[in-house]
Amino acid sequence: MPSLGINLTVLIGKGLPSPAPRFLVEEIDSVEVTQSDDGSSGFQIVFRAGRAGNKDLADYRMIKNPLLQVFNRVILIVTVGAKAQVLMDGIITNQQFSPSLRPGDSTFTITGEDISIMMDLEEKSQSYVAQDEATIARVIIAKYAKYGLKPNVINPPLKDRPTRNNWIPLQSNETDFRYLQKIGKRYGFVFYVTPGPVSLTSTAYWGPPKQNSQPQNPLTLNMGSFSNVESINLQNNSLSATEVEGKVQDRKTNKIRKVGKSKSSRPRLAAKPALTSQSARKSKQFCQTGVDTAEANAYVQGIVDSSVDDVVTITGEIDIVRYGTPLVLRRLVILRGVGTTYDGLYYVKNVTHKLKQGSYKQDFTITREGLGSTI
Fold it and tell me: The whole model's pTM is what?
């Protein structure tokens, strides 16, 4: 699908996918890839599904095509100028056929999720004797190496390897994907899978949220020929930011200790973070036993950090031809041209790539912890 210096490469098949045949690529009507900073990413490819020739008399060629069957693997690579980016490495999970009485209007759609879907299919019960969370994460991710999954596991600040007589980490009726997310929350960590950086590989990241990066090309409004945003909506949610206070019964000393956090540990993006204003603050009680004070504070910090992520939420759409490059998830970006209250740095939380013949647009969601610019 060449378009103004933009090309889409499709690899598809069972096991190790190969380049899609020409006739299949020529029947693509649209491609959509949705990427989120928490959870799985998804894709949808819409094909034109007409009938042509004797081979299509019994059934539509698209429906019978073995390449488009569920649980086949799909890799989507977009090239803008000379730079290639793997948008999706995923698995087909659903088919949808929409026949039409009008010739040429029938469509066949495949949808799916990234490789992490293979980690979220089977609930398991498994014990991990004398293994800390980082070791458990590496063990689980290694089981999916056949899908090109490579681990990027960050050791927590608290080293806690339980002994057999202390406590045994237990995965109880949980999928590997959900369990990795669960054990990460103890330290405010996240788990997700990103495609690439090269085809046939994906990176499984387990660690603290990445919110400190070089800003991408600015999102620009009301600046004449420099403008590259086609639509935008801005929201300020004063009920999002939450402080946490409470107590914990320390399992090492058996004493009751106070815990609490009222400031985010995220990189500061806003001049006026919501948690610095009494009128924009909620308070949440925390009470737990069986962890030590340091672990409880790490967990509490994760709650506070998550609460401020969505104080200011901005959604919009850009044309990649004008913007120059796809907006990258989980990185910083500058917004300018909407006034001093909302201008400044933001974190890219969600993006949706929308490709059609002659068009490449991108929906985005960017967030930060308050109002005002720090730059």
Answer: 0.87
